[in-house]
Amino acid sequence: MRLTTYSDYALRCLIYLATQEDKEKLMNIQDIADVYDISKNHLTKIVHQLATLGYIESVRGRNGGIRLAKTPESINIGKVVRQTEADFSIVDCFTPITAKGVVALPTSGKSPEEKLSIKKQMELCKISPVCKLKHVFYEATQSFLSVLDRYTLADMTANKTELNELLQS
């Protein structure tokens, strides 16, 4: 599995905020962008979503900034990834409609939506409607997310001293 840079940056932002000694102090988005050498504009979009999702508190104005809105122990990594990833399609034919199993052929007796889904799948790959590989990919994705679900932001920042040394260098 490969996460998008969007999810990567979201997790990095949360890690940065969780490593701060003063949990009430507002941090500057530009400072976080500089530490990670990432675009401030891109990070601003991510911060907006993290605030909307309730992970961070955003304060506007001259002395504004961001800080965690929840404790690191209450922020589940799997949940954050699910909320920041656009989709988990490993291959083109992997869709929510077909991921859990095989779409049966023929199309007689199928709803118009099912017929359209089968047609679209066949345009991507001839064997897609009966391919069992996408079920394997679905299971792999669920296993991946299951592992992420076992960890919190607190687990990711248990080594605060080392993280802070690297973040401040």
Q: Can you describe what's shown?
A:
With 169 residues, this protein is mostly helical. It has two domains: 5-80 and 152-164, Winged helix-like DNA-binding domain superfamily/Winged helix DNA-binding domain (Arc Repressor Mutant, subunit A); 87-148, no CATH class. 50% of the residues lie in helices and 5% in strands. The protein is built from eight helices and two strands; from the N terminus they run αααββααααα. It has helices at 5-18, 29-36, 40-52, 77-84, 112-124, 133-149, 153-156, 160-167, and strands at 56-59, 65-68. It has a two-stranded antiparallel sheet with strand order 1-2. Helix 1 (5-18) packs across helix 3 (40-52), helix 1 (5-18) packs across helix 4 (77-84) and helix 2 packs across helix 3 (40-52).
What is the fold's blueprint, element by element?
Blueprint: H1 5-18, H2 29-36, H3 40-52, E1 56-59, E2 65-68, H4 77-84, H5 112-124, H6 133-149, H7 153-156, H8 160-167
Antiparallel strand pairs: 1-2
Count of helix runs = 8
Order of helices and strands: HHHEEHHHHH
Q: Return residue spans where pLDDT drops below 50 for at least 5 consecutive residues.
A: 101-106
- What is the strand content? under 5%
Shape: elongated
CATH H-level name of the largest domain... which superfamily? Winged helix-like DNA-binding domain superfamily/Winged helix DNA-binding domain
Q: What is the share of helical residues?
A: 40-55%
Taking Cα atoms only, what radius of gyration do you get, to the nearest Å? Answer: 21 Å
What is the β-strand count? 2
CATH level 3 topology of the largest domain? Arc Repressor Mutant, subunit A
Instruction: State mean pLDDT (0 to 100 scale).
Output: 86
Question: Based on helices, strands and strand pairing, what is the structural class?
Answer: mainly alpha
Strand order of the largest sheet: 1-2
